[in-house]
Write a structure and sequence with these properties.
- Helix 2 crosses helix 8.
- This protein is globular.
- The longest helix has 17 residues.
- The strands form three sheets. The chain has a six-stranded mixed beta sheet with strand order 10-9-8-11-13-12, sandwiched between helices.
- It folds into three domains: 60 residues, OB fold (Dihydrolipoamide Acetyltransferase, E2P), CATH 2.40.50; 145 residues, Rossmann fold, CATH 3.40.50; 59 residues, Ribonucleotide Reductase Protein R1, domain 1 (Orthogonal Bundle), CATH 1.10.40.50.
- It is built from eight helices and 13 strands.
Length: 293
């Protein structure tokens, strides 16, 4: 029995990487019986059958797993957001950040189309950039024909398994083409009437890039809070989590409770009003969710 990592899944086969080679494997029927499904990114035990074929015998416990794209054991997501066309949107950014935090995936915010900003717009955006950096988020700014991008991403991607996330039309495919020129993913102009781009979905595959692994898929484009409970939402806002130790009540939801450190910080300007508004909106969404049985 050998151990390897699933790097690609295609037409019912799993391609397991070990020591520089890919072994085409089938999954055992027992996985189906248990309702388990091997995912790209899984660490697995497999037995070889012949030179380049095998059978997956066991799945190792996962650090995390995503549904769209179906992938496991992700370290970080390059969260691609354009600053124009489509416009920079803090509520959408916070929605993505919250879901990534809930999966324990580190977000790296990648702002595209910086060259389209006027000086005045740049000053306004800089306020947001400074605020997100103060929370602890890493931010990369990119421009058209950005020749330094690969160099700047190298230390970030090294030794990590990364995936791209962001809505359509923000430049995910362009970013992938920079990192993996051999892919040449088809990029399309923004559809003016819809205000969003179009792309074709491909199978999920982990490809070696910058001494790390990157999922060569344009990523996921929408997030909901199906897997987040109301008590967990605070931990998905890093600045709230730090402050909540000072709340009078354990499990404080920072809405009506007295002596709430988060609401105090809102008064002093330590918590940004738009972040608190988004927190309230997301909490209401979770509370309004129909119960699952």
């Amino acid at each position: 029995m050998a151990q390897g990592q699933i790097r690609k899944a295609l037409s019912g086969y799993y391609y397991v990487y070990q020591d520089g080679e890919l072994i085409q494997c089938r999954g055992r029927g027992v996985f189906r019986n248990r309702g388990e499904s091997p995912l790209v990114g899984d660490i697995v035990d497999y037995t070889k059958e012949g030179d380049s074929d095998g059978v997956i015998m066991k799945l190792h416990p996962r650090k995390n797993e995503l549904v769209r794209p179906p992938i496991a054991n992700i370290d970080q997501a390059l969260l691609v957001f354009s600053v124009k066309e489509p416009e920079f949107n803090t509520i959408l950014l916070d929605r993505f950040l919250v879901v990534l935090e809930s999966f324990q995936v580190d977000p790296i915010i990648c702002l595209t189309k910086m060259d389209l900003l006027t000086d005045e717009e740049r000053v306004k955006l800089q306020v947001y950039i400074d605020q997100y950096k103060a929370i602890g988020y890493e931010i990369i700014e990119t421009y058209k024909n950005d020749e330094t991008l690969l160099e700047r991403l190298q230390p970030i991607l090294e030794g990590k398994t990364s995936v791209l996330a962001g809505q359509s039309g923000v430049g995910k495919s362009t970013l992938l083409n920079t990192l993996l020129p051999e892919l040449q993913l088809q990029t399309s102009d923004i559809s003016q009437s819809l205000g969003r781009g179009k792309h074709t979905t491909r199978h999920v595959e982990l490809i070696e890039v910058c001494s790390g692994l990157l999922a060569d898929t344009p990523g996921f484009s929408s997030f909901d809070f199906d897997t987040i409970e109301k008590e967990e939402l605070t931990s998905c806002f890093p600045e709230f989590e730090r402050l909540s130790e000072g709340c009078k009540f354990r499990g404080c939801l920072h809405i009506k409770e007295p002596k709430c450190a988060v609401k105090d910080a809102l008064e002093t300007g330590e918590v940004q009003p738009y972040r608190y508004e988004h927190y309230q909106q997301f909490l209401q969404e979770i509370l309004d969710r129909k119960p699952r049985y």
